[in-house]
Amino acid sequence: MFHKPKIVIIGGGTGLPVILSGLRDKSVDITAIVTVADDGGSSGILRNYVNVVPPGDIRNVLVALSELPSIEKDLFQYRFKSADKFLAGHAIGNLIIAALQEMRGNIFDAVQELSELMRIHGHIFPVANEPLTLNAEFMDGSKLKGESEITAAHNQIKRVWVTGGKENQDPEAMHQVVDAIMNADQIVLGPGSLFTSILPNLMIKNVGEAVKKTKAEVVYICNIMTQKGETDHFTDADHVRVLNRHLGEKVIDTVLVNIQPVPKDYINFQEWNEISQPVTHDFAGLREQGCRVISANFLRLRDNGAFHDRDKVVNELINRLHDVHSD
């Protein structure tokens, strides 16, 4: 019987669903592990008023892996206009996820049920079964709580950690999350915000431990651009260094690095106001971190912004699976 390689992708934000949509039609068993520490936009409002796990990242992942017709996915993604004061800014999918979470009593069961309804190709696991709060300590010793507050501070981050709703009790991932990581052939981190999309997942103790113990190859898709308030002036080696330092050992086996230059006059920094400048390269620093480096043209320019080329990244991930299995 043919064994489909198991790929686990851990993250959040806008990069995660892009890669997932590219993997959906490949012959792989996909599991998406999604952050629940978001507190901005529609997700943040619902989190504050309804006391639910923020649904935005989960919504985008559901759509990326859904085999529903386009019209149904478009409806799920539809966001009410600002003139609709009562529902202004809310995506229909966020409201559905919040409602089902209330009906089922927890986000994990709600997402599994919604996965069946939306004909999901693969598995989607919220990284925790409760809303998490991201905490940060900055280089100057100050501390802040909340993802949006941390990013808005524009202060150099020293470390991050997550807390749950129960005092003096560390948050834990469901056993399905840990099992998926331990049984994977490949773990993919990113692309996404280093401190606010990727690390919040890894800072859950049993998730971080599983990533350290798994026999799977751990691949990090390094960001193309630095992010204001998070990774200003970071090299690719700095990104890997931060991940390894937070986990207490060198866990990144392979890093995908874009070496195609981003045209200076192409980026609209007013529209894409979260980004700062292209990530610079430090190949000696990457070698010091003990990881294999795959450097190639992974760049896709669109809408005056710099993004990963989905198909090139996905093809490289599939190539790595074949290379590892043939070793």
UniProtKB/TrEMBL annotation:
Pfam families: CofD. It is found in: Cytoplasm. The keyword Ribonucleoprotein does not apply. Keywords: Cytoplasm. InterPro entries: CofD, CofD-like_dom_sf, Gluconeogen_factor. It comes from the Bacteria. Belongs to the gluconeogenesis factor family. NCBIfam families: CofD_related. Required for morphogenesis under gluconeogenic growth conditions. HAMAP family: Gluconeogen_factor. This is Putative gluconeogenesis factor.
